[in-house]
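Lines hold sequence, tokenised fold; shown next:
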Amino acid sequence: MPQTPLDPPLDVEWRKVDAEVFSDHTVLHPPNRLKDRATQLVGPRDRGEAEAIHRAERALGMLSQEFGSWMDTEIERLETARKALSEQPSLEAVDGLYRVAHDLRGQAATLGYPLAGEIAEGLCVFIERLEGAPPPQPLVDRHVESIRAIVRQEVHGRDDPLGAMLTRRLAQLRDQYAAAGQTA
């Protein structure tokens, strides 16, 4: 087949590709050189980077003294959203409760309460599955009370037996409500 001026020169090494020719099309299999281009060996960290990490860890340590008050603020927001839902079950109240639980889900581990985050996550997932219908108030109450208890008892690890049992029991309650099809 004669070469046209628009065809790339076939003698250039980087342009050679494997090809499968069929009657109506050609499949090109170019070499994957991404790994060659993306792989970069990282040497030992320089002193400046290690110092920056050390300063960040110190700052986080100083901030961690305020985590308790931040968590108390988040729990109060959750309590307010729960109360709003119990007084007037509406789409707006469900959305408010979801947003607060979602925030708590994301912040709890950073604030030192990973089990509280898992409980908030369970509540979020349950609310999502209801697709706008109000969740059963007793289930919401158990979740909020459990998060409050975990913070009050300062349960900071996932290995706490009482906290882990509480988290499992709430998961069972969510499953029971979901199986029964109860939404209010």
